[in-house]
From TrEMBL:
Transmembrane annotation, as ranges: 16-38, 50-69, 76-95, 107-127, 148-171, 191-212, 224-244, 256-276, 288-313, 325-344, 356-374
Pfam families (UniProt xref): DUF4153
InterPro entries xref list: DUF4153 (IPR025291)
Protein name (database record): DUF4153 domain-containing protein
Assigned keywords, A-Z: Membrane, Transmembrane, Transmembrane helix
Amino acid sequence: MERNQQETANQQPASMMALLTLIALLQGLALLYLHQAIELHYWPHNQPPWLFACYSVAFIWPTMLLLGLDDSNIGTLVKLTLPFALLSALLGYYVGLQVVPLEHIRFNALLFSFIVTMAIATFKALMYSQLWASGERFSYSALFLWSWRNFLTLSLALLFAGCFWLVLVLWGALFQSIGIDFFKELFQQRWFYYPAIALANGFGVIIFRNLSRIIDTIARLQQALMKFLLVVLSLVSLLFLGALPFTGLSPLWESGGSSLILWMQALMLFFVNAVYQSDADNRPYPLWLHRFIYIGVALLPVYSLISFYGLSLRIDQYGWSLSRYWAYLIWFLLALFPLGYWWGIVKFRDRWTQQLSRTNVAVGLVVLAAMLLVNSPLLDFRKMVVENQLQRLADNKVSVDEFDIHYFRHHLARPGYEGLQTLKAQYGETHPNLLLRINALYADRVNDLPSSSRDEFIAAITLLTDNPPDELLTVIYKQETRSHWSMQHTQRYFLHALDLNQNGELEYLWIEKRRSYTEIKLFFQQDNQWQSAYIGGFRTDQDNADKMHQAILAGEIEIVPSRWHDLVIGEQRFQVRQND
């Protein structure tokens, strides 16, 4: 009865179709305005908080209305989705604040996580809103129906919009081939393709919403496929747990075991929820196979314990990172489901799926809340990573030279930027090399200006010889500050005087120690000008690297005369190399 009511509701009258078309058109115009604002530099292009907020509303609210509105729930659905759209705008505003100052922030990773989490939150909020607006009883089977309808309808609508765009491309190319460029030029205009593609997407939603029986048939087909896959996956899960006592956990950690276990849990939960979506009395398997499945489900908390242990090991070694916070959040959400199922198995045995519906509805709300919180100041992983890593530095768990400033620059957005400024203030005087490296990260590559002053650069040099010529230091400063990449990765600089060619005039060894490589140059005077020549280098991971660094610090640098001079034949120079 409920299914028939939903199918009837999805047969939209002309007035509703006109309303959905208008919503799609307005969404296209809103996205066009925002794109033009970025291109033509008018509001809100230079204000990322407002830009993120506007994009959030432009994508989220019209999409929720397109997928959820029908002539029986307009008022209720608008009341439910509008607050969520405003909340998404507030979260977008906060996330936009994390890319200020824009010229110093890399925000690709931030934008990706925001899009993914808000897409999941919107998906969850929409199906709960649809269920509430329909007046149905909250159950997992109803949520499952709405979720698959929304997912398949939107996916097919986007596919339809993509095909529509390909037809336009073909149209323009065909007419261009006979000398008519009008259509190709028209279809390349933003004022045309933004509304056109948005309308195509809207039409696609209308078309596929009216084909709810086909959508439901597709959902039932995937359920039938997953009935078989769930049995195989349960067998794999049990065999894997049975093998662990014989192999131990060490090989698992060496091959990225924590993520593999999380994937195993996620797939098991997905297949279980795809197969067991009806009431407790409707069993898709024979009783013995049903019990085999729920034994695999009952053992899922063991996977949670193993993955928790593996994640904890990495945190003890290296502290918190964005990926580890995300892994713990995913672990927590995946652990909630099997705990609820386990309680149902203990309490109801063969009728454990009675608890499945309650668990899924409740934990689904937890997932929705988590996806919103990670984009708010209440659960900002980037700030938490910065605090943890700075504390590890203060506790001497990591050295200043080994501190990963590039991770702060490229992955932590504004908190990373502020964290690096804190590092400069706290350690800039005592560790001038760190100051140079941080400055180089934010170098002005447009105007190609030095990222640090001459005094800052000279303060970072470890002088193994007193009173080097001032002109030499200026030459080294100008030469080395041309390469921002080199300054970002160089941990120590050394300068040592010696008479390498035994002519009574001093030359200077310039040594740059990086994380993985140490480079040596020679500075010498020629025609009253300081010149440089590359001598060589060695990898830091070589066995004798530590001894060489200790010798450099101690100034144990000697000149050893060569037994053989170079040989020149024509224009070719040869050196005698003695076999070991």
